[in-house]
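Page 37, continued from 36.
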């Protein structure tokens, strides 16, 4: 199952959720979308990793994004490998 990125309302951070049937569910708070493969985003993410700060500390979601997050978590829960 492929992961999903939920962007923060502040537009600078986000939450990455990925589920692997044999491993479980991973939830990470990133400063940029790790699935965005543009050169600029890859450079930003690499620089943040070199500084030791690729992760965010907080993510703010509006009601619509919370509903999307709940739908995705229910999809993960009902996923059969």
């Amino acid at each position: 199952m492929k992961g999903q990125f939920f962007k923060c309302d502040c537009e600078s951070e986000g939450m990455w959720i990925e589920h692997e049937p044999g491993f479980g569910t991973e939830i990470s708070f990133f400063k940029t979308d790790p699935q965005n493969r543009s050169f600029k985003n890859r450079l930003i993410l690499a620089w943040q990793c070199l500084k030791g700060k690729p992760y965010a500390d907080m993510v703010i979601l509006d009601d619509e994004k919370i509903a999307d997050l709940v739908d995705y978590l229910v999809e993960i829960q009902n996923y059969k490998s």
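The chain has a mean pLDDT of 83. Flag for discussion at group meeting. The longest strand covers residues 14-20.
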